[in-house]
Amino acid sequence: MRAIYHLLLYVSFWSCCQAAQADLVVIANPQSGIEKLSKDEVINLYMGRNRKLTTGMNAMPLDLAAVNAEKAKFYAMLVNKNLPEINSYWARLMFSGQGSPPLQVETTDEVLDIVGSNKAAIGYIERKKLDKRVKLIYDPTQ
Predict the structure, then answer these.
(1) Would you give the DSSP letter of residue 99?
(2) What pLDDT score does 19 carry?
């Protein structure tokens, strides 16, 4: 039953148009020293290929936990992968001892709180949720 739910959820997310995917942005703490990140830099941080921010600090990428519409959109936009593919990727890396996935959080409010209080944290949120605690460092529409 859970597999069917995940499949239906994935199919509904996959049908989202590209414009809806572009509503997600990557954020950092305003005091982090990060001005902008390229798509490749964001991919490398979220896929565990790079653990350092452009400022030299150890990165703390935040990811939404479990099956989530924003998470599905983020990975589709970023690396054109669905959530089962992302989960499989991280399972292989963890099993081989080559890395661990981004820190899992439950809500975008939690992402905002952590990024707003930690210079090394980065996260993704819907553009409409941007506030003064964080700054935009990657916008897929630009």
Answers:
(1) -
(2) 44
CA distances for 71 relative to 56, 98, 113, 116, angstroms? 26, 23, 18, 20
Say what the pTM is: 0.83
Distance CA 85, CA 88 (A): 5
Element (H, E) at 108: helix 108-117
pLDDT, tens only, 85-126: 999 999 999 999 888 999 999 999 999 999 999 999 999 999
**DSSP states of 57-85:** SBPEEEEE-SS-HHHHHHHHHHHS--HHH
Match 């081989």 to its residue by tokens.
96
Q: Which long-range contacts (CB under 8 A, 24 or more apart) does 69-75 make?
A: 69/13, 70/24, 70/108, 70/124, 70/125, 70/126, 72/9, 72/10, 72/13, 72/14, 73/13, 73/16, 73/20, 73/21, 73/23, 73/24, 74/24, 74/124
What's the pLDDT at 68?
85
The beta strand positions in the chain, using DSSP E, are: 24-28, 60-64, 103-105, 121-126, 135-138
